[in-house]
From TrEMBL:
Residues 158-369 form the Radical SAM core domain. This is L-lysine 2,3-aminomutase. Its cofactor is [4Fe-4S] cluster; pyridoxal 5'-phosphate. Pfam families: LAM_C, Radical_SAM. NCBIfam families: KamA family radical SAM protein. Transmembrane segments: none annotated. Signal peptide: none annotated. Belongs to the radical SAM superfamily. KamA family. It comes from Anaeromyxobacter dehalogenans (strain ATCC BAA-258 / DSM 21875 / 2CP-1). GO terms for molecular function: 4 iron, 4 sulfur cluster binding; L-lysine 2,3-aminomutase activity; metal ion binding. The modification N6-(pyridoxal phosphate)lysine is found at K384. Its EC number is 5.4.3.2. InterPro entries: Aldolase_TIM (IPR013785), LAM_C_dom (IPR025895), Lys_aminomutase/Glu_NH3_mut (IPR003739), Lysine_aminomutase (IPR022459), rSAM (IPR007197), rSAM_sf (IPR058240). The keyword Metal-binding applies.
Amino acid sequence: MANLPVMGDVGGVTEELAGGGRTNGEAKAPAVRHEDAPRPVANVLSRFKPGPRSIWAGVPDALWNDWHWQQRERVIRLEQLERVLRVTPEEREAAVKTEAEFHMGITPYYAALMDPEDPTCPIRLQSVPTMGELNILASDLEDPLAEERDMPVPGITHRYPDRVLFYTTHNCPVYCRHCTRKRKVSDPTSAAAKRQIEESLAYIAQHTEIRDVVISGGDPLSLSDDRLDHILGRLRAIPHVEIFRLGTRNLVTLPQRVTDDFVYMLRRHHPVYVNTHFNHPKECTAEAFEAARRLADAGCVIGNQMVLLKGVNDDPAVVKELNHKLLLMRIRPYYIYQCDLARGISHFRTPVEAGIRIIEALRGHTSGLAVPQFVVDAPNGGGKIPVNPEYVVSHEGKRWVLRNFAGKQFEYVEP
């Protein structure tokens, strides 16, 4: 494999990733350093190894640790992918045939975690297109969670009584192949323009029942510090908004994004909750540990939402190892999601019993802190329903009838 220190392709990254001027009129705050913060003990740190550099071994540390550089140098084309790993004929065909449906985008950091020789590598399965994505089942849905149906204004999904989802960007550092929002993520036509952001903020301000805002995308950390600071400041100025949650996978795919300046900015907007998305122990590197440490030291509460994926983490031993590492990183295992009915991800779906088996293998065999809640995000807007006897109305073969928080019943049929 040829050495490729710099790929030199922006790969569709828009101006919202590049920084831009401040929007709140404040002078830029100086970076806050963490020399005085408590340091984890050596036997904790020893469990987290730095991620490899692969073909980027010659890249200077200053560039490698620059999140803007990582965004610019994403692997977005087949010829770039072929320099990183030994591409199989199936992967080569899939990279071409899936491009129109869902782009490929992998940061150098995350690409270097892939096993270049093993197509079943859990990192590779999550980021490299496969032919399974072209298998569209009759049960697959364009909008599996009916987010657009419950969207009173563009960018706001208001389903639960006291909380909303706030769509802020279509960009992500890595376009996960199991993405539930393929209809929007990576598509510039779904970008949240300034007018949409303002209309969303106005809706939240007008609805006094909203106390909790989930800031999502895409990945909101794809926005610059200044733009995020502006959005968080506007939300914090609304009296009835008590908390907000940043939904991000940057800790996994681009931990360099969590800079000193970024966490300094977040500290002005507490309470701040961060929900991230680790799916496999291989993602728990020294770099990810450092990103989580900065957030935790800055006072953020971090939770993990794992998606159950066939061939990636449908093994109780893998989930147990992952959750133990997450707790060392001060990240609380929060949810295990049954894989949604989004288009082209049926090859990732497991039977519901696989999630139940994992929970049974964890409960009593490890601390309760390491046992998340297994939920099905019910199709057609039923919301998150825990899979336990209290919420399972009936189960026969592949047909499950689940009851949600409002007492309504929803059918989930395993494809």
